[in-house]
Write a structure and sequence with these properties.
- The complex is a heterodimer of chains A (311) and B (546).
- By secondary structure, chain A is an alpha+beta fold.
- In chain A, 35% of the residues lie in helices and 18% in strands.
- Chain A folds into 2 domains: 192 residues, no CATH class; 96 residues, no CATH class.
- The two termini of chain A are 50 Å apart.
- Chain B is elongated and about 150 Å long.
- Chain B has 12 helices and 23 strands.
- Helices cover 28% and strands 24% of the residues of chain B.
- By secondary structure, chain B is an alpha+beta fold.
- The chains are: A alpha+beta (311), B alpha+beta (546).
- At the A-B interface, helix 1, helix 2, helix 3, strand 1 and helix 5 of A face strand 1, strand 2, strand 7, strand 14 and helix 4 of B.
Chain lengths: 311, 546
């Protein structure tokens, strides 16, 4: 038997499905490899400029949704598996094993974070994302990442059968956060960390008036924010209803006109079809409308309006 | 069971107030009893009176009564949409005294926020100035005081209260009357600035806060200046005796007059206008996908339908999230190539066979070098390096991780060893078949019918070790002793006794069919032979007995 004939025979043997099935068992990768590849799948050590090649893709004060390209991950893993000698036999063997290894490490990746957090029970069977399942995520570039440690991002999915534990949730540096979800979220909710119950209004942003978050004061949803068309109702409070008349424009005091404010809020509650229990708003009802925790904003995923890769 | 409502993450209930049956003060209870007895002509009034005091904090707060406050002492904080507050552990505290005789609903205290220059203050001659600009004064220059255009609150103070525990001294602040009118809440507003809340944090709180707790809270009526960084001072002031001086009250404002208020609790902090507000930051954010905006040069015309094929391709690449990068080719030309990271704005296609010569569906879907992952678009003559970069990245990161690189290298070596062992097992089978039948079955049919469980056992780690050792004996050591023998092992690595080699030359013991069957089932011929021998011995024993 010449050497050449040997390789030909081995090639022939390796092409047989029985042999391929056998090898998946007897030559499986160990946990060191699986964990490392899972880390790669979650793009753990990939330099940021390789993730986002152009800074214009992620400007400041931006939230950017994305899909994770499985082909990219496959190429990444193939690169990792190219370590060591690369004879034609090595190459044949790795090829036979590659698909199983990818599947196994993507399953490991899907459970990795839940395991570290001790939340494995939340990733129950049937809920665990299948390998090759399209996963999605977001990049967040904003001062809130650094200024509000403990920032909560809550995804909403089209299906209930999705694990609630993100695959990755990491601040990549100053003002930069990456989250990878086990499925494609329909929308996400960004919440202020619930460090303490605060009272006040929401800043409308820019020159817009401040806003009150209306909450139910009667009925079965008492305490919850009033929601209309899937969005929390924010009542605009013009400055005239908020502050006392300033006597000195150069030295404003920003003292609240509580009398006018409570009346304005009562009107807004009536408008939102959740009037106070009595004819006037009570101190407790007023306090509830002023509760400010946790502040949250919902962003719907703009990707869902988009097409597949254009051909 | 919880009767509390869920607010965010917290379970709590809000109540307007908890007004005590009798506000604090000095009371006198009087009993009149008139007896008229006609037969004895007794007619008399009996009277009795009893003085009593309902005590409540008045000039200072009890130790440890403050549960929390916002902003924190000394904090830099943006409170331009958040009201400062203070929370007390005693739910009755804000209503323990009455503000005015006919007003039980209003709390007798208010949380007021001042800037330093809104407080009239002269630092002590000896000692450091008080950061909250309060001064400790004897009660005589506070209660019912009215001199030098300075006015104190009108209070009834029991003699006993004045002297109990030494001469009574209180912490005070001086505020100009018109400033006070600008900042203080109206009497009708006061009740909206206080409430009671019951919180149930179950076990998820420190001892003393866990379980169901009821607190009273006071809110301030002032936001921070959004345009200016400046220090602020918070005072919980007693409004006892001041009802008519509150804005809208009956007492006229005397310009230049200073009001001397009792301060029950105070702290200072800094309002940072440039501080970070969650709401403003979040609302400024734009949501989008990871792609560069495509702005076609004017020369391309306005209608994308009329673009040339190459221009359409550029637009398409932009929409799919690609970036054009400089590409210095190996041969020296300077060009550009498309690159897209792992994050895509559109649903990505799964390319199963990046190596184009491999048909999809075959097992060989692995990319074996970075160059093979470069995608060349013949139509436009451009390269897509995305997957080549990914491949190179995977290799480099793994090389940088020593344990992982070592594990992969070892896994490969072990795998190759197993394949070689497997190959030898199969080769041996073929050889035996050839000897027994004169010809070997085609490889495929052999592989189709092999006993894989047996092979699997043979390939488990310890068995593989045996084979490796046999391999060493048969080839390396054998070669060392006998010289090169053209790839053939000195002894059969799978049949050290050599018995299997001679299966066909033992016609009396095992016939050809039995040998083939044993081989197929993976049974060691030794076992068959010894079984046969045992039976033969038993037979002969029986014969002897007869």
């Amino acid at each position: 038997m010449s050497k050449h004939a040997g390789i030909t025979q081995i090639r022939e043997i390796l092409e047989h499905t029985n042999i391929q099935t056998l090898l998946q068992d007897v030559a499986a990768t160990d946990s060191t490899i699986d964990n490392w590849l899972a880390r790669l799948i979650l793009l753990g050590d990939v330099p940021f400029q390789n993730l986002v090649a152009d800074s214009r893709l992620l400007p400041p004060d931006a939230i950017r949704f994305f899909y994770v390209d499985p082909t990219w991950l496959y190429a990444l893993i193939d690169g990792a598996l190219s370590i060591g000698s690369d004879t034609s036999l090595d190459s044949l063997f790795t090829s036979v094993m590659a698909e199983t290894i990818r599947d196994k490490s993507s399953l490991t990746a899907n459970k990795m974070r839940a395991k570290l957090l001790g939340l494995e029970s939340l990733v129950t069977a049937g809920m665990e994302p299948a390998q090759n399942n399209l996963v999605a995520g977001l990049l967040l570039r904003s001062q809130i990442v650094t200024a509000f440690p403990g920032l909560k991002i809550v995804p909403a999915y089209a299906s209930d059968a999705v694990s609630s534990v993100p695959l990755r949730y990491e601040a990549l540096g100053k003002d930069l956060l990456i989250v990878i979800f086990p499925a494609v979220p329909v929308s996400i909710k960004i919440q202020q960390p619930p460090h303490g119950l605060q009272f006040g209004l929401a800043d409308g942003g820019g020159a817009k008036p401040y806003q009150a978050r209306l909450r139910y004061v009667t009925g079965s949803h008492v305490g919850e924010q009033v929601v209309k068309d899937g969005r929390a109702v924010l009542a605009e409070i013009p400055n005239a209803d908020l502050f006392r008349t300033e006597t000195d424009a150069s030295n404003k005091k920003y003292v609240l006109n509580i009398g006018a404010l409570k009346e304005k809020i009562r009107q807004e509650m009536v408008k939102a079809a959740t009037p106070p229990a009595g004819p006037a708003i009570s101190p407790a009802e007023f306090a509830m409308q002023m509760i400010d925790t946790p502040e949250e904003v919902v962003f719907s995923n703009p990707q869902l309006q988009q097409q597949n890769d254009e051909q | 069971m919880s009767d509390l409502n869920t607010i965010g993450e917290l379970k709590m209930r809000f109540v307007d107030n908890t007004i005590p049956a009798l506000p604090a003060g000095t009371y006198e209870i009087e009993v009149h009893h008139t007896i008229t007895e006609h037969s004895y002509k007794i007619e008399k009034d009996y009277t009795a009176s009893q003085r009593f005091v309902v005590k409540a904090p008045r000039f200072t707060l009890p130790v440890g009564v403050v549960q929390s406050q916002f902003p924190l002492q000394g904090a830099d904080v943006d409170f331009h949409v958040n009201l400062p507050y203070i929370v007390f552990r005693h739910e009755h505290l804000p209503w323990a005294r009455s503000l005015a005789n006919d007003d039980l609903l209003s709390p007798w205290m208010a949380l007021m926020i001042f800037t330093p220059n809104e407080l009239v203050y002269s630092p002590p001659n000896n000692g450091d100035p008080n950061p909250t600009r309060a001064t400790v004064r004897s009660i005589d220059v506070v209660a019912n005081y009215s001199q030098n255009n300075i006015k104190g609150p009108v209070l009834y103070i029991d003699d006993a209260e004045k002297t109990a525990g030494g001469p009574l001294k209180v912490e005070t602040i001086d505020v100009l009357a018109d400033t006070f009118r600008q900042l203080a809440p109206q009497q009708t507003e006061l009740q909206y600035l206080a409430h009671v809340r019951t919180v149930d944090s179950a076990g998820n709180a420190a001892d003393g806060e866990a379980g169901k707790q009821t607190y009273a809270a006071l809110l301030a009526n002032r936001f921070g200046d959004p345009a200016k960084d400046q220090p602020y001072i918070a005072h919980v002031v007693s409004l006892e005796g001041w009802a008519n001086y509150l804005p809208g009250g009956s007492e006229p404002v005397v310009t230049g007059q200073t009001l001397r208020l009792v301060s029950l609790y105070s702290w200072n902090f800094t309002g940072k206008a440039a501080g970070i507000s969650f709401g403003a930051l979040v609302k400024n954010m734009t949501a989008g996908t990871l792609k560069l905006p495509f702005v076609a040069p004017a020369s391309w015309g306005s209608d994308p339908q009329n673009y040339s094929a190459a221009r359409k391709e550029v637009q398409k690449k932009y929409n799919n999230g690609y970036v054009a990068m400089d590409y210095d080719t190996r041969t020296g030309e300077e060009s550009f190539a498309w690159y897209r990271g792992p994050f895509t704005p559109t649903v990505p296609l799964l390319i199963k066979n990046l190596e184009p010569q491999v048909k999809e569906g075959e097992y060989l879907t692995r990319v074996s070098s970075a160059d093979k992952a470069i995608i060349y678009d013949a139509e436009t003559g451009t390269f897509d390096h995305s997957y080549a970069v990914a491949w190179e990245m995977g290799r480099m990161l793994t090389l940088a991780n020593r344990p992982a690189a070592l594990a992969i290298w070892q896994w490969k070596n072990t795998g190759i060893q197993k394949i070689q062992t497997l190959n030898r097992i199969i080769a041996d089978k073929q050889k035996k078949q050839r000897k027994l039948l004169g010809t070997a079955a085609p490889l495929k049919s052999l592989l189709d019918t092999m006993n894989w469980q047996q092979v699997k056992d043979d390939l488990t780690d310890d068995q593989a070790g045996t084979y490796t050792f046999m391999d060493y004996l048969g080839r390396t050591l054998g070669k060392h002793i006998l010289g090169d023998r053209d790839e053939q092992p000195v002894v059969s690595v799978l049949d050290p006794t050599g018995l299997q080699q001679h299966g066909d030359s033992m016609p009396g013991v095992l016939n050809k069919e039995a040998m083939l069957a044993a081989m197929e089932k993976g049974i060691d011929p030794h076992v068959l032979i010894s079984n046969l021998l045992n039976e033969a011995l038993k037979l002969s024993g029986k014969t002897n007995e007869q």
